[in-house]
Amino acid sequence: MTYPGIMKTNSPFTPEIERESPSAIAAYQDTRLREALSYLNNCSPFYRDSFNRNHINVDKIRTTADLVLLPVTTKDDLQRYNNDFLCVPRNKVTDFITTSGTLGDPVTFALTDKDLDRLAYNEAISFTCAAGHPGEVYQLMTTIDRRFMAGLAYFLGIRMLGASVVRVGSGIPELQWDTIQRIRPDAIVTVPSFILKIIDYAENHGIDYRSSSIQKAICIGEPLRNSDLSLNTLGKRISDKWDIRLFSTYASTEMATSFTECSEGSGGHHHPELIIVEFLDDQDMPVAEGEAGEVTITTLGVEGMPLLRFKTGDICHHFSTPCRCGRNTIRLGPIIGRKNQMIKYKGTTIFPPALYDILDNIPYVSNYVVEVCTNQIGTDEIRIHLSGNGIGEEKENDIKDHFRARLRVVPLIFFVPESDVQKMQFPEMSRKPVKFIDNRK
């Protein structure tokens, strides 16, 4: 097919550019970058002012290597100057969405018809990357309302792919299984930790989930792999229970683009026709392959609110070697953590996923929330609120031993009823489960 403004494809949704040589991909992105800079200079009040203040002549920025000459965009910029990022008249906006507010107050984004088409295209090629094809049925276990981009994106992308959607929404394991048994979908789209919950429900209610119609899961919001791309504890627990294919994805509202694993499970594939990605250190300079860097993106083809060198706050590794699937695009490893969520605890630097990985590996822990706050002496304090089966003093010592063995430090442990954990996980207006609460001053 030919998609306006997007590279031609050699199959329904596999863009030719992703199979080109790295040099051809780089040359293509250089051209698209120059187009994006011209558009920002002409249409974006925020970036036009930034270019003027920093004495930047965008005509001299010719390649992606020149991006280091430009200032980065931060979450604070989006929060303080939100309206100045809008590049179109308000009457051209089709849909308003907001970010989840993980790293601060939510930010509003405006999408035009063209942006919604781009969003659908992104998800169509992403689902194709995850072994998707026309005729499949996907059960959507995430909300499509509450100003949430992800659910809408999945719906639009699956529709463009030529597949079908069952919009069940988040939570309610009973309704999820009723839908699976009634409609027999091929795949689910969900937060991976929720898969364990629907497995538990099935086991407790005599449902033969291993013989269900589900063949694969498109997993969002939580990493399934370690830095070496092996399955992490959460991924192993799911795989040990249920023999379905797991595809990990990474995306955010700001980038309006996703990085999705192919069947090789070797990292999330970059779509070079939709986004430029950098991996930066604390001085906003590129890191070498093998070093962890902050994912920093420049959107391509966004009409309403495009971004230039936006620092996502997410830290990960990247890989540039060709994938066995035939794509030659950069691949993102699992997110190590969010920069603003880094914890300094008793002299040890910890990101929340390291805590999740330990808790997910303790079979009698059924649910948990990690809270970090500031103690009386002004340092970080980690409090873990958890529920589980047969929890008592003996179990508490065992949990602490797990943390000592893996991290050499032990957080404060609080045993609470399952209902209390769920209240913490789903505060009012929440669109997805909360596993980390930052109450630091």
List keywords for this structure.
4-stranded antiparallel sheet; 6-stranded mixed sheet; 11 helices; alpha/beta; GMP Synthetase, Chain A, domain 3; 441 residues; Rossmann fold; disordered N terminus; globular; 2 domains
Number of strands: 23
| Tally of discrete structural domains | 2
The biggest sheet, with number of strands, parallel, antiparallel or mixed sense and barrel status, is: 6 strands, mixed
If classified by CATH, what would the architecture of the largest domain be?
3-Layer(aba) Sandwich
If helices are DSSP runs of H or I spanning 4 or more residues, what is the number of helices?
11
Structure described in brief:
The chain has eleven helices and 23 strands. With 441 residues, the protein is an alpha/beta fold.
Care to describe what's here?
- The chain is α/β, with parallel strands linked by helices.
- It has 2 domains: 1-337, 3-Layer(aba) Sandwich (Rossmann fold); 342-439, GMP Synthetase, Chain A, domain 3.
- The protein is 30% helix and 23% strand.
- It is built from 11 helices and 23 strands.
- The protein has helices spanning 22-43, 45-53, 75-80, 113-129, 149-161, 173-183, 192-204, 233-241, 352-359, 393-407, 418-425; strands at 9-11, 14-15, 95-98, 108-111, 137-140, 164-167, 187-190, 216-219, 245-252, 257-260, 268-269, 275-280, 293-299, 310-316, 318-319, 331-332, 337-338, 343-345, 348-350, 365-374, 380-388, 412-415, 436-439.
- The strands form 7 sheets. The chain has a 6-stranded mixed sheet with strand order 6-5-7-8-9-10, sandwiched between helices. Strands 12-13-14-17 form a 4-stranded antiparallel sheet, covered by helices on one side.
- A hairpin with a 5-residue loop joins β20 (365-374) and β21 (380-388).
- α4 (113-129) packs across α5 (149-161) and α7 packs parallel to α8 (233-241).
- The radius of gyration is 22 Å and the shape is globular.
- The chain starts with 8 loop residues before the first strand and ends with a strand.
